[in-house]
Amino acid sequence: MKKFLTLTLSLVLALVLVSSQASAQQFSKRKQYNSVGVSLNAMNYFGDITPKPSIASFRFAATRPNIGFSFTHRFAPRISVRAGLAYGRITGDDAKAADDTDPDAKYRFNRNMNFRNDIVEGSLVGVFDLIENRNNYLKRPDFVPYIFAGIAGFHHNPKGLVGNDGPTDIQGDYIALQPLGTEGQRLTGDQYGLWQFSIPFGGGVRYKLNKSFDLGLEIGWRKTFTDYIDDVSTNYVNNPADLSAGAARYFGYDITKGLDGTYSEANQAGGQRGKSNEDDWYIVTGLSVNYILAPRVKSPKFR
């Protein structure tokens, strides 16, 4: 599935590039233009701490805000390139994701994991309009559906909430999980990176408000190449002594009511904590307003 998805996206991007080269030859520079935009979005995630092990499964109540800024250059009747910078948050909580009708509810409640993760993303995508515009920006269509795909890099830092039974001086605080090696990574030296990359793809529609402004609605999926944006992937440690010194401070007692359920009598030592065969995803859905930077027209020289 992963190889098929990657191959499909690569093929789509190749076709878009070939199409753009042919179209650009018939699209003069005087018709090309730039735009800047701001977007207010909703952010969700799919991973080990969602209600069901399905890419369509996410908890609406876990939706968090995301804000983005973009710069777009249109250089062909259907083709644009967009650079973006965005910041947002994703969350997950076993106590809220599981319910009594879920066959994995007991497993999830015993794991008792929660996290939040602030993500800063920089992206570069190609945008393919399903309705072309061979005229200048003033005569662009009123309503344009489009698809997009590209590449993005992001920084993330999953954190867990210290519960009421945690150390008194940090109860209610969010603690960075990656340095703790919650699955014994400090012993193996196999800690996951906080800088990652993803493949953003999706679609949307643009509506022409007036000669200078467009209103957009878009949904985009981010296929990441890490299973740790929620800090959950493989197995529990064999015993609490296998955790790092920092983790022992939070996990060395009744940690089912502490930071998360990394190890307890309810969880068999070395047993499954997450599903490492699927990488995590996040989803960005929202509205954007784009302002078109009218191209400057050079006056002809008189002789």
TrEMBL record:
Domain DUF6089: start-end pairs: 27-165
Signal peptide: none
Gene3D superfamilies (UniProt xref): 2.40.160.20
InterPro entries: DUF6089, OMP/PagP_B-barrel
Protein name (Swiss-Prot/TrEMBL): Outer membrane beta-barrel protein
